[in-house]
Amino acid sequence: MDRTQVIIVRHGETQWNIKGVRQGHLDSPLTEKGLAQAEALGERLAREKFTVLYSSDLGRAVQTAQMISQATGHNIVTDARLRERHLGIFQGLSAEEIKERYPEEYRLHRTLGPDYVIPGGESVHQQIARNVACLKDVAEKHAGETIAVVTHGGVLSGLFRHIFSIPFQAPRRFEFVNAGLNVFVYEEGHWLLQTWGDISHLPPGAASDGDEP
Hints:
single chain, alpha/beta, globular, 6-stranded mixed β-sheet
């Protein structure tokens, strides 16, 4: 099988990123910094040769993809499988609010690990299975090409762990930054990481980790 190069970028910084609110399948708009990050991503990707632009269908990813599309001229192909984890009853709340409103569910979330299904949501394993299946499908569909994908921090984190066989319950020892550029290769059913967390396209002070707690 021909190798596919997959450029995966995380959406720009959002209002809820900086407030520490869990987004999941809910949304908040990009901040002024997030818009600048998305614009810089577009300028960077305009210098790359890729055939198709995929995006999660959530607003923060689509908003970022639109900025890229304006710079590169690609149409946006959305796929719901590229969404972040569905956080169920935790969505739209900060960690402190979750502890206060749902103490038992929060305890289970922190202790049962990647198999715990948040009420109204999904488990880490369910999310990552969905994400990886989507990325595999698009990589095989575009074998031999270079494609770009706009998605979320949890998706990148999950793919990273999947590739390197890092247990999902193990502490995270790597960053996934807003508007970071990550390059993977897919070939014969296997993934290879080429570049991780490249923010050289962002001006000084424009980077933000934007971790989704």
